[in-house]
Every structure is written in C-alpha cells, then in structure tokens.
Q: What sequence folds into this?
C-alpha cells in the first residue's frame, strides 16, 4: 500500500460514501501490486456495487484526464501519493 493519507481533490459524495470509497481503494492497494491498475479498479468497483448497487465505474492511474456525467452525490476524485482514483456512478437514464 502507498503510505500517507488520501487527498480528496473533488467530490460531491456524502462523507460516509467517501469513507467507503477510500477504504475500498486502500484495501485494493493491500491486495494488489500498485502498478496493477486494472485489478485495483475492478476491486473498488465490485465493492461499491455490493454496498450501493450496480453501476459504479472506477479509473485508477498516475496520469489521466476525463470529463464524465455522473449521478448526483456519487463522484469522488482523490489521490494516494502519485496514484489517482476517479470513482463515480453513471446516470441511470439520459433525458431526451
């Protein structure tokens, strides 16, 4: 696991959900090599799907950008040292 605290860069999640998301990330870092972004992201997604229902997405890496649409109160973007996490739940329906 990377040492140090998570630094939240942006979020609209309730605090309890933020804690769950960061705890899932920390757990994934204990289970997988820090360079295994796919396994880390899959672990976080599966954990949040179990706790909050399906539809979660997770991006993990050290250098990426994005622009997404998400359901309200389901977005968090944080870092553990040089590793960045983007976690969100996609919108359930698109208006026409």
A:
């Amino acid at each position: 696991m990377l040492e140090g605290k998570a630094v939240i860069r942006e979020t609209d999640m309730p605090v309890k959900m933020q804690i769950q998301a960061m705890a899932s990330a920390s757990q994934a870092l204990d289970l997988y090599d820090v360079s295994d972004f796919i396994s880390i992201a899959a672990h976080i997604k599966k954990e949040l799907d179990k706790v909050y229902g399906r539809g979660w997405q997770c991006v993990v890496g050290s250098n990426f950008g994005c622009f997404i649409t998400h359901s309200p109160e389901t977005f968090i973007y944080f870092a553990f040292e040089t590793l960045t996490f983007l976690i969100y739940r996609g919108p359930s329906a698109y208006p026409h």
